[in-house]
Each structure stands twice: as structure tokens, then as C-alpha cells.
Amino acid sequence: MVTIKEVADYAGVAISTVSKVLNNYPNVSETTKKKVRKAIDELHYVPNTIAAALSSKQYARVGLVVNLNTQTQAIDEITMQYLSGAMNKAREKNIEVVTIFYSMLEGMKLDEIVRYFQSQSIFAMIFYGLSKEDEVFHQLINMQMFKCVVVDAPFVNENTSSVWVDNAKAQYDVAKRAVIDDNSKNILYIAGKKNGYVTDCRLEGIKELAREKDLKVKICYGDFSELKARNIAMEYGREADLIVCASDLMAIGAMNACIDIDIFRPVCGFDGITLMGYVGKQMLTVKQNFYRISQVAVEEICLLLSGEKGRSRIVEHRLVKLYYQDIIC
Amino acid sequence: MVTIKEVADYAGVAISTVSKVLNNYPNVSETTKKKVRKAIDELHYVPNTIAAALSSKQYARVGLVVNLNTQTQAIDEITMQYLSGAMNKAREKNIEVVTIFYSMLEGMKLDEIVRYFQSQSIFAMIFYGLSKEDEVFHQLINMQMFKCVVVDAPFVNENTSSVWVDNAKAQYDVAKRAVIDDNSKNILYIAGKKNGYVTDCRLEGIKELAREKDLKVKICYGDFSELKARNIAMEYGREADLIVCASDLMAIGAMNACIDIDIFRPVCGFDGITLMGYVGKQMLTVKQNFYRISQVAVEEICLLLSGEKGRSRIVEHRLVKLYYQDIIC
DNA sequence: CTGTTAGCGCGTTCAA
DNA sequence: TTGAACGCGCTAACAG
Fold first, then answer.
1. Dihedral (Cα; A94, B295, B74, A161), 10-degree rounding
2. Quick check: B119 CB within 7 A of strand D?
3. Do residues B323 and B281 touch, judged by C-beta distance below 8 A?
4. Which of A164, A278, B212, B252 is spaced 20 to 30 A from A214 at the CA atom?
């Protein structure tokens, strides 16, 4: 590994001069710049990020804290979208991100987690899929020791921003469309996890619609589980003329239940994951752009790091109908 | 951030002494160890990895180079398994990994990529899903500038190991089981990408079985695409009494084709991704343990980093029957 | 067994 | 406009 010193010697200038042209300082003559650039090129010099970081103390990595939940969500399209969105934006913004799985931090006490992050020079992080049960992380956020962005959870303070889809509106929108399309009057709504962040918002949306359209709505909690959604649909599906689910996976469960008990009910989902196509049936769903959401999260982290105060930010959503033929190309 | 110096002062010892207890050097009396530990504890000292790395020059991060192919494989269970397997093992081995998407490196020339890795202090990397077309990476591997482990591709040299499932045997095994179960004589084999690494191995397996059992085998290339597999099955499915596919996704395509043209043919897949369950039908498939494969890859990287020469290593596989009820719990 | 010292590669004053 | 010199936080000889 060639160092800055070698470049300096080769170019016949001082180390500091090389450093200056590397970092685009003013007050360097064009001629010396040329010399230095030439040396850099011919020596194939690559600056050592580690050393630069140590020296400048400007080093901040952001942790992407994701919840790979192999139990309840085997197919993790969403997380991958999150990760790749964040990484691309990070590259654009020239900051370093490291991905961290919840499972790696499992069982650690708050101070252990803090130390872990510190030792890794991680002073900012983005939480994806934080739930009300993740108390350690709540504490972490509240102590405001790190700059945080929380996706889909209501945390905002001086050092914390949150990034959301408007869940209430989205749920309202998609259900409304389904209701209109099928002229439904009687809805089975399979919500997520009782008392969950997004679950509550989505519930608001469906309730709003029910009031507006004077619908009958039966509400059950499916805990985002396919199986539970399936069982709920088995039990109450008959009585409804439309099944609205708070997630795509639950929608799959509900659809399969309908098939099993041999009834047809339109089902609509939430998320817009591609998986929906694989079930081979057409389904209306909210399309969240997870890639973009994650990019926005990184932007927010940058703002926080540059001294802005935390805030809440909404990312737009769409509605789509997904079906097999759409995705097999 | 409290530094080692503050700890030293607080404990009334020299900096180097603190360093020694931090790194578990011998030749430190128990009493001073105690003093230092106490100071560390009370000051909440967290060592600065960056500085340690710079100083010791023992710094090597390993890049996990993954191919998030949103086009052909929307549902990326496999990659997530790879990543989490590698990260867990990395934590165990106390090395740092950074995940890198192919797409981030896209269009870069070899030397740009080299510089990118160098600037990130990445001197070792694991390639997942490398294909014959990724020439830049082949060059990268062949120049032996980095320690590499390649998963599912035949690269071995002084500084490169490969980690494999025995694709030939696996394909042989799964097809044999299917053939026996259904007493099939006439197979439609939907292979992967013509001239691909794993494709060729799997082809070997099926050919071997055909010889042994005196089967008739029609071979088509589905390019790992659902759509192509679907079309192939539409065209040739009727004539076969068993469809064997070189990937789960293609198996799904084939199954859907059978449904569409209203024939029943047993289909078997390859991979064992959970997604298979979602199609709602039972299917025999090879179960690759991607998590474990990735762990093995990290182990191999460690060996390379510690001076061992590259080698090829096989990871065992299993056969499973996946169906809906298995995974919705 | 402990402390002193010299770097690691780079950023950044401050003189010159 | 340039360069010498110091320091970032830590490791690793080497003395004592």
C-alpha cells in the first residue's frame, strides 16, 4: 500500500501539500496540483480511509438496523429493498453504512449495545421495523446519544427523525378502491399486531372509511401471521363480502383460506411485495416503495448529522394490482 | 469519548499497560489488571477500533459481494440467508464484514473496483452467485491481490477458495427420489443457464441418473427464469411424467404451467427456499442451507487470511418436501 | 512486570 | 503558496 508520504516524495512536495490537493483545499497552485495528481496516478495511490478518519475525527458510520425475522416472515424482500436503497443513497452521499441484524444485538443490555456501536464508530443509525416490544432500542433512541432515523415508528426528538408512509390514508385508499370496485358493504378487516405502531394507523384508516361509507367492519388481529389470518378468514370470511388485510402475507393466508373453504371473496393486501404475484391470483394492494423509503431515511440521517433537528417525514405510496403475469418476465 | 490515556491516568499506570490488558497480553500482574479493569469500567471506556486498526495494521474487512437481482429474482430469501450467516460467523470470528451489492460496482473498471476496495480497507471478499459473465470479478480473483472465497463457482488458487454444494449429487439425489416415488420414466429437465457453473454440475447429476435408470430425459434451458420454465413446461410438459427443475423458481413456473394447461405432473425443484411453500402445493426439492454455506465461506476466508492456501470445500445438502402447512406457523 | 517511545497514515495548524 | 510539525488513539518493540 503506497502512502501519502511516498506520493509526496515522488512529487517532490510535502505531505501536507498532497493532503491538500486530495481534499480540494484552496491555495494550491495549479502546477503543484498537476504534479501531485500525476504522482498519485503513477503510484496508484489510494488514500487510507482509516487513517483519514482517525486524523480528521470526522468519522461517522451509520448502522442499518434490520429485523430479519425468519420466523414470521421468511421471505424478506422488504429488508433487501431497504438495504439496497440505503446503500445506494449512502454511496451518493459519501457516507459509510453497516448493516446490523437485530439478532446480533439480541439479549444485550443497553450499555453493551451502546458500547458495541461506539467501538464500531457508529454514531448514527436507521431502525427498520422497530416494534413496541424493542424496549432497549427505545431507550437507545431516547437517550439521544446517537442520531437516529426510525422507519415506521413514531420517534421524534432533537436527534431522531421518523420516516413514514401515511398508513391511515393508504389503508383508507386501498380499502376504498376495493369497496367501490366490488360494491362491498361488509368487511372483514384483519389487522396486524394489537397495539402496534402501523397497525393502529391502518386501523384508523379503515375506521374512517367505514364511517364514511357506512360499512360494517369486523376487526380481528392477525398479528401479521399468515396462519392466523388464514384461520380468521376461515371463521369469518363467509360473513363478509370483502377481506382487507393489513399485510400482504396475511392476505395470502386469507386467500388460501377462501380457496380451502371454497368461497370467493376479494382480498386486498398492504405492502406491495412481489411475492404477491407468486400466489397466482390478482390482488389489490398498497404499494410501498421500500427502496425509496430507505433512501429518504438516509437523507434524514444526513440532515441530523449536519445539525438539523429531528422531524417526521412522510413518503408517498401507491395502489397496485399485482398478479402472476406481472412479475414472471 | 474517553481515550486510553485517560484510563491510564485514572488507573495510575502507563498507556501501554492498559493496552496490554485490553488485548490480553501476558505479563501483567493480577493487581494492575484489576486496577485497569476498574478504571475502564468506571470511565465507560470503549476502545477505538479505528485507531487500533491503524496502529496494529491488522485491519482487514471482508466484503460480502451479493447479487441482488431484482429483475430475475424478486424474492431474495437466499441472499438474506447468506448475509446473516456470514455476519454471525464474522462476529464469532471477530472480523468485520461489509455488504456490497453488485449493482454498486456496476460499470466500474477493474482498477476502479480495486481502488474502491482498497480505500475501504477491504482486502478479502466473498462472492455470492458469481456468473461466467462477471469478467471483472474473474480478473479480480485471478490477480490474487485479495483473499477471496467464491460460493458456487469453481475458483481456486493460492488466495482463493471455493465453497460448494455438491450440485451433481444433489440433483441426482432429488431426481432419483422423485423418479422412484412416482415411478417416472420420462423426464423433462429444465436446466439453468447454458454453460453456467452450477447448471453444468446439475446437468451431470441428471445425466448420471438417466444412465443408471435408463430414463428418457428432455433437456431445456430455462435460464433460471420462471417465465421460460413456464413456457417450456407448457410445450413439453405433456410428454413427460416428471418435471425436474434446476431451481425452485423455475419449478414454480412449471407448476403453474401444468395448472394452466390442466395436467398433473410431479415437479421437483432445487434450493429449498421457503417461498416454495407459498405456492400452496407440495414439492420435492433440494434443501441447501444457505446460512450454513455462508458461515463456511467466512471460515474459509479466515483460513486464507491466516495464510492457508485456497481450496475447494463442499457443504452438505438435504432433500425436503415443502408445502404450505410447513411454513405458515 | 511496567513504562517510555516510536510510529501507523493522514489532517491541520502555523510559520516561513 | 508551501512545508514542518504536531496529534488523532492505539499497538508494539524495547528498556528498565
1. -40
2. no
3. yes
4. A164
Q: What is the pLDDT of residue B278?
A: 55
Residues 210-229 of A with CB under 8 A from B: 225-227
Helices then strands (H, E): number in chain B?
Answer: 15, 12
**B160 and B307 co-located in one domain:** yes
Is the pLDDT confidence value at A130 over 80? Answer: yes
Is residue A23 within 8 Å of A15, Cβ to Cβ?
Answer: no
Residues 270-299 of B with CB under 7 A from strand D: none
Residue B221 forms part of a structural domain: yes
Q: Is residue A231 part of a domain?
A: yes
Q: Which residue of B has its CA nearest to A69?
A: B80
**Are A90 and A154 members of one domain?**
yes
Task: Give dist(CA B233, CA B321) in Å, integer.
Answer: 21
Selected residues 172-201 of chain A with any CB under 8 Å from a CB in chain B: none
Residue A280: pLDDT over 60: no
B87/A68 CB distance under 8 A: no
In which residue are the cell numbers 468485520 written?
A: B96
Give the residue ranges of chain B where pLDDT is below 70: 68-76, 274-281, 322-329
Same domain, B37 and B133: no
**Boundaries of domain holding B32:** 1-45
Query: How many structural domains does chain B have?
Result: 3
pLDDT for res A115:
85
Are A186 and A253 within one domain?
A: yes
Say whether both B98 and B208 belong to one domain. no
The pLDDT of residue B274 is: 66
